[in-house]
Amino acid sequence: MCSRYRELALCVLMTLALAGCERESRKFSDPSLSSKPLNTLSQSEIQPGGPAPPHETEVHSPYDYNAYAVNQGKQLYEWFNCKGCHADGGGAIGPPLMDDKWIYGSQPENIFATIVEGRPNGMPSFRNKIPTQQVWQLVAYVRSMSGLLPKDASPSRSDHLFTKKSEASGPDQQPVPSSPPPSQ
Asked: What percent of the chain has pLDDT over 70?
């Protein structure tokens, strides 16, 4: 009879211990992002050498530490054919996204503005074509390509058989602003 009470007490104790464990909370979608209007920077505000965007504080990507969102951004990168110009981040007809030289800046708000507004000489505008939440997922993935995100948030592998090394396996580097492109 005593062993039965011990077993019951042990079961109750284990149940309480498991109930007290806190799991990581994961946001698979952020409804507050989809309801926000898109960034409305003018073309002169996003070109190099133009006036700085009117931000009082630095804008942080809402998905920089969210591995699920970064992986979604990786899928979107392929689905929206970003690979067509930027390849796997090493550049092709578009600039590379894996090096430490960024024409328009590596901050999340600059990448967001590039995707939404487009850039002269090739980068199309995706305004009203991609929901805001997906733009931020793309921003997080693009930043992961150059080692700007923590290793635990960067994609660790690709789901394809033949591919490049994972974004998390690359060296950490800080992008440095390059000189503005020559005017045409």
From this structure: 62
Cβ atoms 116, 45 nearer than 8 A = no
What's the domain count of the chain? 1
CA-wise closest residue to 77 among 8, 157, 142: 142
- Predicted confidence at residue 51, as pLDDT, reads 45
CA 162 to chain centre: 23
Residue 120 lies in a domain: yes
The verdict on residue 72 lying in a domain is yes
Burial class (CB within 10 angstroms; exposed 0-12, middle 13-18, buried 19+) of 162: exposed
Cα(58)–Cα(167) distance, rounded to whole angstroms?
Answer: 25
Does a structural domain hold residue 160? yes
Contact between 65 and 153 under an 8 Å Cβ cutoff? The reply is yes
Residues 132, 141: Cα–Cα separation, whole Å? 14
pLDDT in tens, 47-68: 444 444 444 445 677 898 898 9
Residue 98's CATH number: 1.10.760.10
What is the predicted pLDDT for the residue at 126?
93
* Paired tokens of 23: 């799991």
Contacts with 19 (C-beta within 8 Å, 6 or more apart), sequence order? none
Q: Which amino acid is at 117?
A: E
